[in-house]
User: Which sequence fits this backbone?
């Protein structure tokens, strides 16, 4: 069985972070493992507190897994400090890592900055060169490039600029443009590809970014090319949003197992 490792924070509400990553891996037929970078106190309404893991613990989690198990893809999510970023980079350089998918969790869906400028610079300097794919949302792409993104052409320009920061391939997520179609732009340094899906009117979108990047990692672990992996990931996250779960008083989670439930004829909306 193919194996993927997520290096990310824990979401106590189960909708995002390592919980979303592991559910995504399992739903797509990949065995998931985790190196936890932080523990959060959160529910569907807000994040109340965050406790980072010591950098040495994160480093040791990664190395002990690579020492024992063949890993076919790595996904990196929330890393909120320079020390954590450096420890992850050192760990990955100490092994022979497979394809790394980096979800640069810097700015939230609402535009709230989660990473200060120094940590953002460290993310680019240390982790972009190790990444096969980076998956910024519109706000993150703007922060990385210093440009304003208003349309598809701007997304393509941003993708080209982000590639110059060191990553090999990029998927700029355009869901926050607010258009009728949710459009993502893929770029591998040669070709652009546009991924589109119909926008689903729902507040239950917690964990969509985590899920999309994890789906790309899972499909890379299964041997798919970048364009194939991202296209399959787009279809998967679109279905998960269409079948989102109305849990809690805030933004509920996507439904990671919607395909499995449908096959089993179980209604879990």
Assistant:
């Amino acid at each position: 069985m193919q194996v993927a490792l997520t290096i990310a924070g824990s979401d106590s509400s189960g909708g995002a972070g390592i919980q979303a990553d592991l559910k995504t891996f399992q739903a797509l037929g990949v065995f998931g493992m985790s190196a936890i970078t932080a523990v959060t106190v959160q529910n569907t309404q807000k994040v109340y507190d965050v406790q980072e893991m010591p950098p040495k613990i994160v480093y040791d989690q990664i190395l002990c897994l690579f020492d024992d198990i063949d890993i076919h893809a790595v996904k990196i999510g929330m890393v909120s400090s320079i020390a954590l970023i450096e420890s992850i980079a050192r760990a990955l350089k100490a092994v022979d890592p497979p394809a790394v998918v980096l979800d640069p969790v810097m700015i939230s869906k609402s535009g709230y900055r989660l990473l200060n400028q120094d940590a953002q610079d460290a993310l680019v300097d240390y982790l972009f060169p190790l990444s096969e794919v980076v998956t910024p949302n519109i706000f993150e792409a703007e922060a990385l490039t210093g440009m304003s993104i208003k349309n598809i052409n701007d997304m393509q320009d941003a993708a080209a600029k982000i590639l110059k920061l060191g990553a090999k391939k990029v998927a700029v997520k355009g869901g926050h443009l607010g258009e009728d179609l949710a459009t993502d732009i893929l770029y591998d340094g040669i070709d652009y590809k546009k991924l589109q899906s119909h926008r689903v009117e729902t507040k239950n979108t917690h964990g969509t970014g985590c899920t999309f990047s994890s789906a790309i990692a899972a499909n890379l672990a299964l041997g798919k090319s970048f364009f194939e992996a991202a296209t399959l990931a787009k279809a998967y996250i679109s279905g998960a949003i269409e079948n989102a779960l109305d849990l809690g008083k805030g933004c509920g989670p996507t439904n990671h197992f919607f395909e499995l439930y449908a096959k089993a004829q179980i209604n879990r909306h």
Summary: The CA atoms of residues 19 and 198 lie 26 Å apart.
